[in-house]
């Protein structure tokens, strides 16, 4: 039986190291963190006020179930902001 050819693998060569310095982002500005936390608190406050006094506040009563969309969207925006927080 004929002997099969042995393939030679090339030796592993690591990719070349880039000598260009990479710009590293610094910490998040304190105002960004304040806005992020304010979104959470504002969304939570919107939902609490809707539950406790929603029918007695004219514009909230007119919004109806849209109050839940507003409250939860404020909370979600705050949570999405955490992805950019350093």
Alpha-beta classification? mainly alpha
Beta-strand proportion: under 5%
How much helicity do the residues have?
40-55%
Sum up the overall morphology in one term: elongated
Number of strands: 0
State the end-to-end CA separation: 65 Å
Element-level helix/strand string: HHH
Query: Unreliable runs, pLDDT <50, ≥5 residues?
Result: none
Main β sheet profile: none
Task: List the total number of helices.
Answer: 3
What's the overall average pLDDT, rounded?
Answer: 89
Radius of gyration: 28 Å
Structural account:
It contains 3 helices and no strands. The chain is an all-alpha fold and 86 residues long. The longest helix has 24 residues, at 30-53.
Q: In terms of topology, how is this protein built?
A:
Layout: H1 30-53, H2 58-63, H3 66-81
Concise structural overview:
The chain is mainly alpha-helical.
Sum up the structure in keywords.
transmembrane helix, CrgA, cell membrane, 86 residues, 3 helices, cell cycle, mainly alpha
